[in-house]
Amino acid sequence: MESDLSLTPDPSPASRERGGLPQAGRGEGGRRSSANVKGAARQMRKEPTRSESLLWSALRNRRLASRKFRRQHPVGRFILDFYCDEERLAVEVDGPVHETQRQADSERQQILESMGIRFLRLPAALVEGDLPAALAAIERAFSTGPSLAQRERGDPQGRDEGL
């Protein structure tokens, strides 16, 4: 599956889908400060794309295999669409803009992978057209064995009893 690694996109969903990148808040050499990245992530959470909104509704509150996900999660100078810390898994939803920025996406992914973050890229069309298939792909990307939350509850087999 081809990865979709965009640099921190414009907070506006329409602009992000067109490929716009924010220019404000960049420091020397085009790098973003920690405060600027956090502010951009906060704004992106307020204005999700349609596919991000659909996926978040299925991931939030540990709804998928008891894994905790964060949305628009800052890591260094980058913002990940969705991130599961216990799996060290980034889930990126790739819309049409990613067709035009493959090189930047690849460089971004390499940097983040060097930090131990695994990537799963999902086409926005899959998320919007077949959400169960998108969720199944995310589950397949999980490490084998129970999640940290399941181990803390004393469930070494990873069963979600009572759910």
Secondary structure class reads alpha+beta
Side-by-side strand order of the widest sheet: 1-2-3-4
* Beta-strand share of residues: 15-25%
Shape: globular
CATH fold type? Endonuclease, Chain A
* Number of individual domains: 1
**The top level CATH class name:** Alpha Beta
Give the % helix. 25-40%
Q: What's the total helix number? A: 7
- Major beta-sheet overview: 4 strands, mixed
CATH superfamily caption: VSR Endonuclease
Q: Give a count of the beta strands, DSSP E runs of length 2 or more.
A: 4
Poorly predicted parts: 1-30, 157-163
Mean pLDDT: 78
* Terminal residue distance: 31 Å
Can you name the CATH architecture? 3-Layer(aba) Sandwich
Question: What is shown here, in short?
Answer:
This protein has 163 residues and is of the alpha+beta class. The chain contains seven helices and four strands. Strand 1 and strand 2 form a beta hairpin.
Task: Please provide a written account of the structure.
The longest helix has 13 residues, at 34-46. Helix 4 links the parallel strand 3 and strand 4 (118-123). This protein has one domain (13-142): VSR Endonuclease (Endonuclease, Chain A, 3-Layer(aba) Sandwich), CATH 3.40.960.10. The chain is globular, with a radius of gyration of 16 Å. Strands 1-2-3-4 form a four-stranded mixed beta sheet, sandwiched between helices. It has helices at residues 13-18, 34-46, 50-59, 102-113, 124-129, 131-141, 148-152; strands spanning 70-75, 78-84, 89-94, 118-123. Residues 1-30 and 157-163 have low confidence and may be disordered. It starts with 12 loop residues before the first helix and ends in an 11-residue tail after the last helix. The protein has 163 residues and is of the alpha+beta class.
